[in-house]
Write a structure and sequence with these properties.
The chain has helices at residues 3-9, 19-45, 53-74, 81-105, 110-131. With 132 residues, it is mostly helical. It starts with a helix and ends with a helix.
Length: 132
Amino acid sequence: MTFAKQMLETYPRDFNVDTAVLTRCIEACYECAQACTACADDCLSEESVQDLVKCVRLDLDCADICVAAGRVANRQTGYDANVTRGILDACMTACRACGDECEEHAGHHEHCRICADACRACEQACRELLAA
């Protein structure tokens, strides 16, 4: 059992969302942030770093937004659906843009392929939480 799930299960009040869906979203956000941060670092180490400037920028933007989305989704007390919806929409947008950019480099850089996969998984997890 993950820490996110354990923590959600200790919440002393009821909340109106499937815990499994919420857990997946929180975990996907943090995993994507880690993958994007690592991808940016790997890109900076490539000989062709000039060709990867946009990728680095999107990696870092996506990582920051994913961390914020994971943190907001994790909070249940005083829940505001509009705020959560807004950050999850922003996270999906960032993940889509970063994933698209990383896919363009995936044939030459394995770290970009992995990052694109993490972005797609996070985008889907955010979409599922919004639909829940």
